[in-house]
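Propose amino acids for all 102 sites.
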């Protein structure tokens, strides 16, 4: 398993606080996310954070690959009103070991 960051950004106009259609989708995301994670081999949602004024979400997950995460984001509705970027992440300790050559 590897760590990935999901960075989802939407416009103020499509924000669930300002847009009824986005709000309806957002209310269902938690339930859909739980169903989609199991279905697409996402083993753990490490954290789900939101910056309301920046209109950005950061979701940290453990998964086998970015393709599974992409499909999960589509099925859960995250990509319905967000631009989504999936980024592989490394633990700081792992990077330090690489740098030090151990």
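Proposal:
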């Amino acid at each position: 398993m590897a760590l990935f960051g999901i960075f989802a950004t939407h416009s103020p106009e499509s924000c669930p606080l300002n847009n009824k259609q986005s709000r309806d989708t957002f209310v269902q995301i938690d339930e859909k996310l739980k169903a989609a994670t199991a279905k697409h081999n996402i083993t753990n949602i490490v954290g789900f954070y939101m910056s309301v004024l920046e209109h950005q979400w950061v979701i940290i997950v453990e998964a086998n690959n970015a393709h599974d995460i992409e499909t999960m984001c589509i099925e859960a509705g995250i990509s319905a009103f967000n631009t989504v970027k999936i980024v592989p992440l490394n633990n700081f300790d792992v990077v330090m070991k690489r740098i030090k050559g151990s």
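The longest strand covers residues 42-51. The domain at 2-100 is CATH 3.30.70.1060 (Alpha-Beta Plaits).
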